[in-house]
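From the pipeline queue, job 12 of 40. The input is one protein chain; the requested action is below.

Action: predict structure.
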Amino acid sequence: MADELVHLAVADGVATVTLDSQHNRNALSRRLVGELDERLATAGDHPDVRVVVVAAEGPAFCAGADLKEASDDGMEQGSRAMVAMQRRIVALPVPVVVRLQGPVRAGGLGIVGAADVVVAAESVSFSFTEVRLALAPAVISLTTLPRMGDRAAALHFLTADTFDAHEAARLGLVTRAVADADLDAAVEQVVALMRDAPRQGLSETKALLAAPLLERIDALGDDLAARSARLFGSDEARAAMRAFLSRR
């Protein structure tokens, strides 16, 4: 449908879920997160699907939370939805491959952390920007912290620096960084290998790999969603978000 923010296409055993909210750089509005969760659920239930690819239209993969929405309405619902969406990716019965063609900021890194395989163009940049807005990467720490480790997370969470795809691969956030011109071929190479495997083998192997991350989300998700909502609702964060929006 033309007014969708997230599209789903299924062909040859592959479900492609595409973020398409280009007016705000695919920011994680409540509507986009809801549609993403629905498309993932549909893809996971499809008996012919062996692998899901999450991609994005436009120059950016994801700009993080929708700050206009968050500054106006808070993140009570949004934080819980972000936890649920990450859990959906981790618990999906087939592998999830993320194709990164453009910058990823803040909340968008939760999608990256939750995925099984992430292939990034080497021009892609990454940043945990929350600290600059009087926030913390609370909800997305569920999936990114286990990938990165404490020391690397401390550096990038606290400085909000911008780092490249090769550094993201070194940290474990990204599986592979490739030349921009090779991105589609690199994604297809991974997808083709999975597409040819029996679904039971993929599902059982993914469950084995995902068990610790799923346990972490179930143990910490509610508390971190509440912390995120509290921070987004604070006077300091609201002022910082409004200042950022006015500059943009």
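Job complete. The longest strand covers residues 6-11.
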